[in-house]
Every structure is written in C-alpha cells, then in structure tokens.
Predict the 3D structure of the following.
Amino acid sequence: MSARKRISAEQRKESRKEVSLAVLKNVPTSPRKMRYVADLVRGMEVFKALGVLKFSNKEASRRVEKLLLSAIANWEQKNERKAETGELYIKTISVDGGTMLKRLRTAPQGRGYRIRKRSNHVTIVVDTLNKEQEQN
C-alpha cells in the first residue's frame, strides 16, 4: 500500500472512531414507509426521539426505536460513560433500498401481475451537541 493511500485510510479510521452509529439491514418494509418514520426523528435529541417513536402508530417506528437504542449503547461503549439527557442528538439517519423479492400473482386471462416485496437498510449516526457547538 502506498503512503498516500495509507494516510487517507488512517484518516478515515480516525473519523469513524469519533462517530457512533448503528446499522439495520434487510428490514422487510418498503423504504418509503421507513423514510416517513426517519423524517420524524431526524436531527432530534435522542431521548425526545425515543418518546416520539414509542408513541408512533407506524410499524416501522418499533424497528427504528430499537436501532436508536443500539446507537446510544454504541456511543456509551465508545465513550465509557452513560448518555445524559440533552447531550446526544441524531446527526444523520438514512434509509436506503435493499434487496427486492420479485413474485408473480395470477391475473385474469392467463396473465401474471408482478409483485415487488421491498426491503431497506437503515443507518443512524449519533453525536454530541457539545462537539457541534465547539466547531462553530
């Protein structure tokens, strides 16, 4: 590996150390339905977002709530202390399309209608508010 590549790889690793994230893959709901829930909590303080997700009627909110708890636990593990109220916020939350199961449904006159069973991948990045204020 050349020196330039090694240096850029080390910089990427260092930037990943500062960020706590959690990833949920192959969730069997459509990305569009999951994005509605992601838009509800984007940029919120984490404990406020947990309250919003807890009382949301959407089925996808249960999965995002569990993922957010995992991201908080990852942050606590990296920083070796408990998260306090008002300290953490959701820096980014992204929903990407996953694999798609393609099926055929029988239709009249010998035809077949296509059914696409979609899945998605969700990524949550959690960061501290203090770090954001120091940079500004």
About this structure: The chain has one domain: 21-135. Strands lie at 20-27, 88-106, 112-128. The domain at 21-135 is CATH 3.90.470.10 (Ribosomal Protein L22; Chain A).
